[in-house]
Amino acid sequence: MHQQGRPETMWGLGLNESEAARIQEAVGHSFELRNHPQGRALPEAIAPGEQPGTVWIPLRAWQTLPEEYRDTLREMENSQRILIQGPDQETMELEQVLEQGFLTTLHAPLSRDKVQDALFRAKEVTSLYSDIYNMTEEIILERELLKRKTDQLLFLNRFLTNATGSLDPSEILSQALEDLGLLLPVKLLQAAFWLRNPDSGKTDVELLLDGSLGRKVEERWVEFLLETTMRHEGGPIAGFQVERMRSKGQALPPDAGRSLILPLAGPQGQFGCLALLCDRDIRLAKDQVQTLKSAVRHLGLALNNARLYREVKIRADRDGLTKLHNRQTLDSRLALELKRSRRYGSQLSLLMLDLDHFKQINDTYGHAAGDMVLQEVGHLLQDSIRSCDVASRFGGEEFVLLLPHTSESDAWKLAERIRERIDKRRFRYEGQTIAVTVSIGVSSLTPGTLDQENDLLVRADQALYVAKANGRNSVATSDHCDPARTVNS
Predict the structure, then answer these.
(1) What percent of the chain has pLDDT over 70?
(2) What are the angstrom distances between the C-alpha of 275 and each of 46, 76, 90, 244, 422?
(3) Range 185-221 burial, b when 16+ CB lie within 10 A, else e
(4) Which of 61, 158, 250, 393 is most buried, judged by most C-beta within 10 A?
(5) In which order are the strands placed within the sheet that holds 80-85?
(6) Cα 446 to the chain's mean position, in Å?
(7) Is omega for the bond preceding 109 within 30 degrees of 0, making it cis?
(8) CA gap 183, 162 in Å, rounded
(9) pLDDT in tens, 332-379
């Protein structure tokens, strides 16, 4: 019954000397009885730590207490009150005793057994109340933990559903920014993907940045993410490209808050990282950290699937050597652009290019040199057109450029620029310099005509024949071509 070596405190309210002595004798030295004489005022509020475990109150004293004092005693939740009734007083019924807030009642004269029995009951009730209180707290805590775990599972279920709802990395990351905002205050989300070339040991990097950053802020993010890539990947960077995502974040630089760098991994290992810009003083609880890590693991798998899908789609839609669109993709886009041209009355042009005497390059320098020339020409063509144009490898050393919203005169000017660039270009392979020229045929669709889908290709092929007949390394239009003459190689 001792608390830190001191006896437990009990109160008496209005006990006479005989009653106080009898109670103290019965309870022994483990308890200290502090008797308050009848009529002395009680404090209006008593702190829980100052409340006695047991209060002994004679009925005569209770009957003379003001109601506010009685209320003060009733509000002492950590104390058990025991009523003492004298032999000459009218006995209170048990219901009345309980209504007045007492645990039990003792009848004078007091005996050792009566006092000890009442004290034992008081301690039992106090212990029971304490157990119930502790159990209630544990239940409340368990309910709170269960609620938090349920919220985390609901969050992860939503996050996983949204992450796997698209095969576009930009869409996945834009949705991830919105979803992660439910877990922590994210201002901006960026990402870096990397792929190391095993032959050169250098790394190609793809950066996915918010589209609203602006040039200066974007440059700072590019530098930040490239440095992060080098720390994680370890090797030098061969080059990088930037893809701008749909804007959902704030246009802030990397040092505008705390940047959380989280790894993105797939079955083959880490392939990139996620950069979350948050408040500087952000603090995450242990369960939040676990939820965040689990969400990013799901995100890594979804992004890895999206990257694999994109690679497969590129292999299906593009030429394996030049990475330009293949013939199948060209046919599909050509049909689409013809429908648009007829519907909206817009102009449409097409260039057909053929490298001059390409067989001599293969025969003189080898097919590997020829492949290098085709690759470089493909890069040059891609750099020469707009984002709405389509560059494709038509077959062998032939290429086709589809130019929406372009007149024949503008198409001819572009063809001349490309011809001059290739003519001036010197291709180098294993110390050898290779000169290449190109012949180009130009055809155009005039608004309002009813050309068939292959007319543009046929007339461009006819124009290409004219360019070849004019001595090669030249450009010809289809205006004055002989329909019966075509070039097939």
Answers:
(1) 92
(2) 55, 56, 81, 15, 42
(3) ebbbbbbbbbebeeeeeebebbbbbbbbbeeebbeeb
(4) 393
(5) 31-36, 8-13, 54-58, 80-85, 104-107
(6) 49
(7) yes
(8) 15
(9) 899 999 988 888 888 999 999 999 999 999 999 999 999 999 999 999
State how far the Cα of 378 lies from the Cα of 161, in Å rounded to an integer. Answer: 39
The confidence band for 4, taking pLDDT boundaries of 50, 70 and 90, is low
Question: Any bridge partners for residue 121, and if so which?
Answer: none
Instruction: Report the distance separating Cα 340 and Cα 403, nearest Å.
Output: 12
Are 418 and 400 in contact by the 8 Å Cβ rule? The answer is no
**223-229: Cβ within 8 A, 24+ apart:** 224/254, 224/259, 224/275, 225/190, 225/192, 225/273, 225/275, 226/192, 228/192, 228/261, 228/273, 228/275, 229/192, 229/194, 229/203, 229/205, 229/273
Full DSSP string of 26-55: HH-TTEEEEEEPTTPPPPS---GGGS-SEE
Structure tokens that stand for 204 in this block: 């190609």
Residue 44 clears pLDDT 70, i.e. is over it: no
Which residue blocks in 262-366 are alpha helix, DSSP H? 286-317, 327-344, 358-365
**What would the two tokens of residue 423 be?**
């003519």
Provide the 3-class DSSP secondary structure of residue 348.
strand
Evaluate if residue 65 carries a pLDDT over 90: no
Give the Cα separation of 171 and 188 in Å (integer): 15
**Sign, Cα dihedral of 127, 133, 137, 139:** positive
Nearest-CA neighbor of 459 among 470, 471, 444? Answer: 444
With tokens 């940045």, the residue in question is 209
Question: Do residues 400 and 457 touch, judged by C-beta distance below 8 A?
Answer: yes
Q: Over the chain, what is the mean pLDDT?
A: 86
Kindly report the backbone phi and psi dihedral angles of residue 451, in degrees, each rounded to the nearest multiple of 5, phi listed first.
-65, 145
Q: Given a cut of 80, is residue 480 above it in pLDDT? A: no
- Find residue 186's DSSP bridge partners: 278
Q: Are 259 and 226 in contact (CB under 8 A)?
A: no
SS3 content of the chain, % helix, strand, coil (to 5): 45, 25, 30
Angle, vertex CA 147, rays to CA 143 and CA 150, nearest 5: 135
In sequence order, the β-bridge partners of residue 196 are 203
Q: Residues 420-429, buried b or exposed e (16+ Cβ, 10 A)?
A: eebeeeebeb
Band (pLDDT 50/70/90 cuts) for residue 45 is very low
Average pLDDT over residues 167-194: 89
- Which residues sit opposite 353 in a β-bridge? 399, 440
Predicted TM-score (pTM) of this structure: 0.54
